[in-house]
Amino acid sequence: MKQLTFLLLVLLLPSCSVEDDSAPLFIEPIYVNNPTFKLKLDIIYVLPNEKYAKSKYNIDESKYLDYLNGCFFNRHDIGIVLGESRTLVNPELYDLKDDRGNESAIFERETKGTCKPDRLNMYIIPRTNTIAIAGLGVTQRTLITDEFLFKTTSPHEIGHSLGLHHLDVDGNIMSRVKPYLRKEFNSEQVSELIQQIITINNR
Ligand SMILES: [Zn+2]
């Protein structure tokens, strides 16, 4: 039987629940030197006003890239490289809890002018400023709440922002069921990711 018959549901939902990753599986990192398919990632810290700096978040960016590359991407010959580390002052996006139910629409609207087409744009907001979401992924734009950076929410939302839909198969990164089992992309998804990376790099 074809693998497709086992796919229970392939849905594109705008957000992923905050129950994600309550007890994440340990994933043995695999690093590859100079992977073939490189994707630039900008980390964009969302701030409420000009008085704050990105240090408000206290995130170790190189450790984060190591997490993404070692646990999820290098094993598929994909390398995420840091583009720019920047900030966005945007009180509406920062306080996303004020817009419950419209998180995805607000995210798209408020980031329109600041995302760059030749890379992946990752926006970070405090987990405490949302109610129901751990992260969001729309075309080339990812929103991750800070407490979920080092969880499978990150590759899951990056997957969405590179065109992957939900695939509710145990263990798959794009699954919404048993999020604690999320571990890997399947070969079809890897091909899609690589195609999308090639497209982005040609922009
Ligand atoms: Zn999702």
What does this structure look like?
This protein has one domain (8-25, 33-201): Collagenase (Catalytic Domain), CATH 3.40.390. 25% of the residues lie in helices and 21% in strands. The protein has 5 helices and 6 strands. The protein starts with 14 loop residues before the first strand and ends with a helix. Bound molecules: zinc ion (ZN). Zinc ion is lined by residues 13, 16, 156, 160, 166.
Taking pLDDT < 50 over at least 5 consecutive residues as the criterion, the unreliable ranges are 1-15
Category by helix and strand content: alpha/beta
CATH fold annotation: Collagenase (Catalytic Domain)
Question: Main β-sheet: number of strands, strand sense, barrel status?
Answer: 6 strands, mixed
Strand order of the largest sheet: 1-5-6-4-2-3
Find the CATH superfamily: Collagenase (Catalytic Domain)
> What is the CATH architecture assignment?
3-Layer(aba) Sandwich
Helix and strand run: EEHEHHEEEHH
Distance between the termini: 39 Å
Which molecules are bound in this entry?
A: zinc ion
> What Rg, in angstroms, do the CA atoms define?
16 Å
Helix content bin: 10-25%
**Number of β-strand runs:** 6
Shape call: globular
CATH class type? Alpha Beta
For this structure, the quaternary state is: single chain
Determine the mean pLDDT: 89
